[in-house]
Request: fold
Amino acid sequence: MSRFIEIVEVGPRDGLQNEKALLDVDQKLAFIARLEAAGARRMETVSFVNPKRVPQMAGAEEVMESLPTTAGRSRIGLVLNMKGWERAVAANCDEANVVVCATDGFGIRNQGASAAEQMAALAAIAARREAEGGPPISVTFSVAFGCPFDGEVSQDQVVALAREAASLNIAEIALADTIGVADPWTVRARVEAVKAVIGTKKLRLHFHDTRNT
Reply:
C-alpha cells in the first residue's frame, strides 16, 4: 500500500464504555500504556461525560493528569457539550473530539439533545476555541449509517451535517457506524459525497464489524 493510513485507537473510551466491569484509574493507565507500547500514537483516552450516567468513564481528569508526557503521542478527550469542552481544556487534552448524533432519535436518547441542538453546541465550542484557544477539535457524527431508533439515515442528512461542520472550520470530520450496519458500498458512496463538501478537511471513519462486512 502506497498511501498512509492513520489508526486512532479508541479502546480506553469506546472499548470500555459498554463493559460491565469497571476499571480504576491505575488499570486504565496500564491499558493505555500497553496500547502505546503496541504502537498506538493517537488515542481517545478519556470521555468527559457524567460518570453517574456512564460510570465506566469515571476518573477522566485523574487519567489525564497521570499520563506521562511523551513526544509523538496525542491523547484525545471525547466531549458532548460545553461543560465537556471545559473539562477537556482544564485536563490539558491534546485534542477534543465532539460527538454529534446524526439523528434526533439517537441524540435525544443518548445525549438529551436533537441533532440541531448538538450542532449549535459544536458551533459554540468552535467559537470559544477561536476566541480563547484550546486543543484542536474534531467532530464525530455518530449513527451516520443507520440509527436504532430512526432507522436508515439518508446520505443527504449526513452530507448536510458535514458541510456545516466544515463551515465551522473543524479540521477533522468523522463518520461513525455506531451500531454496525454499514456495508462497503454505502461507505464508499457516503465517503465520496462527504469529501465533496468538506474540501481539504481530514475525514476519519469509525466502524463496528458486527456483520463481517
Summary: The mean pLDDT is 96. Strands lie at 42-47, 74-79, 95-101, 137-142, 172-176, 202-206.
